[in-house]
Amino acid sequence: MPGSYKCARCKHKVEIDVNVRCPYCGHRILFKERGAGIKDLKAR
Amino acid sequence: MIPVRCFTCGKIISLAWEEYRERVEGGEDAGTVLTDLGLHRYCCRRMLLTHKELVKDLNPYQ
Amino acid sequence: MDIVFSRLGDNEARFVLEGVSDGFANSFRRAMMSEVPTLAIEDVRIYDNTSVLFDEILASRLGLIPIRTDLSTYRLPSRCECGGAGCPRCYTVYTLSVEGPCMVYSGDLVPRDPAASPVHDRIPILRLFENQKLVLEARAVLGKGKEHSKWQPTIACGYKHYPVITIDDRCDGCGMCVDECPRGRLANGKGKARVIPERLELCLLCRLCEKACKRGGIGSEPAIRVDEERSRYIFNVEGDGSLPVREIIKEALLHLKESTRSLLESLDEIAGGTSDEESE
User: Fold this and answer.
1) Is residue B36 part of a domain?
2) What is the pLDDT of residues C73-114, one digit of tens each?
3) How far apart are CA C239 and CA C241, in angstroms?
4) Which chains reach chain B with 3 or more Cβ–Cβ distances below 8 angstroms?
5) How far apart (Å, rounded) are the C-alpha atoms in residues C154 and C13?
6) From the list C40, C44, C48, which residue is nearest A41 (CB)?
7) Contact A37/C at CB under 8 A
8) Residue B19 is part of a domain; what is its CATH number?
9) Is A18 in the C-facing interface, judged by CB distances under 8 Å?
10) Which of C33, C104, C197, C249 is placed for a possible disulfide with C125 were both Cys, Cβ 3.0 to 4.6 Å?
């Protein structure tokens, strides 16, 4: 799944294909969004 | 965030953090506040004394 | 063997143990720290966490929260009838579901068993800002301090030898040792320093008073001497609240008894039941 990202400047949701660049504002810094999965951890 | 326990002895020091910060910001002497809050060992005292709260600064970058 | 308590509260005990060896005193200390089981959060299932802290940091913080433990209700997973598979006798569940902006406290954890609630309600776990959310489920199990310190029932737990302070006739009452003592256990008497009896047990055995005395020009041997009484110990035990200190001490002693008994049994097996006669 092409991960869902969020632009650091305009906060738009972005899908990355080849270019790492926000299609709305051209910003190159993107944050990865948290997946919907459940995470199991050890409390250590 | 303030660590839950003292790294060295394991005492729950995070309980004292909010009151400590308020009182020190209010101009009280950090040493007397720590003694007041029942933190007598120097391992526990340094936990609060040297702590810097960063969660607020980190928030915009999430 | 003799034990005298000078303080025995829920979370703190101070006592003098007399007539035991170094080895026993130390194994007693170690048993209190690492062999008495308590409850602590071990598994965390995170459904949603949009806070500033990583899931792993959050889980580690949850694990360190002390939980009231009733040792008659819970069993170590390794000793449970279910064989560690998980049953109501060996674990309990907490749920946490909060939306920001707010501070999340240990009191926000909703326990399935109200008797196994966190000791303190006001331990800050993390801060949530606008539009942040935290939904999780945590599972607490019994464990021992030797595996992870989150299961340690004690915080500061240690002992020292009983101090013996002798001040001989060469003392001229200069007061150097009185000023030097970090615990204020000395006072000036009539032309001679004296020990304040109720502060004697505070002595750190640091011998600063001896050094101060030498500097006072009394000679190469100080007039005040700090010695340790062998086979007499001052214990200081502090609990984190998960178990009352009295129970920590009891459980540690039961552990020592149980482990020596099992050692005797295996010795009997090897020696074919002659170990009793040999010890005569």
Assistant:
1) yes
2) 898 988 888 877 778 888 999 999 999 799 999 999 999 999
3) 5
4) C
5) 11
6) C44
7) no
8) 1.10.10.60
9) no
10) C104
C43 CB neighbours in chain A (<8 A) are 40-43
Cα separation, C173 vs C188, in Å, equals 7
**Is C123 in Cβ contact with B1 (below 8 Å)?**
no
Q: Which chains touch A (3 or more CB pairs under 8 A)?
A: C
CA distance B5 to C120: 12
Residues spanned by the domain of B32: 14-61
User: By CA distance, what is C50's nearest residue in B?
Assistant: B62
Cis peptide leading into residue C77 (ω within 30°)? no
Chains A and C form CB pairs within 8 A to the count of 40
Residue C44 near residue C56, CB atoms below 8 Å: no
In a domain, B2, yes or no: no
Minimal CA separation from C47 to chain A, in Å:
5
**What domains can you pick out in chain A, each with its CATH number?**
1-33 (2.20.28.30)
Q: Note whether C129 and C100 are within 8 A (CB).
A: yes
| Inter-chain CB proximity A34 and C48 less than 8 Å | yes
* C235 neighbors C15 (Cβ within 8 angstroms): yes
Q: Is residue B6 part of a domain?
A: no
- B60 close contact with C: CB closer than 8 A: no
User: Could you tell me the pTM of the whole model?
Assistant: 0.84
Q: Which amino acid is at C156?
A: A
Please tell me which residue of chain C has the smallest CA distance to B5.
Answer: C64
pLDDT tens digits along C130-168: 889 999 999 999 999 999 999 999 999 999 999 999 998
Structural domains for chain C: 2-34+155-237 (3.30.1360.10), 38-146 (2.170.120.12)
B12:C123 CB<8 A: yes
CB C242 within 8 A of CB C69: yes
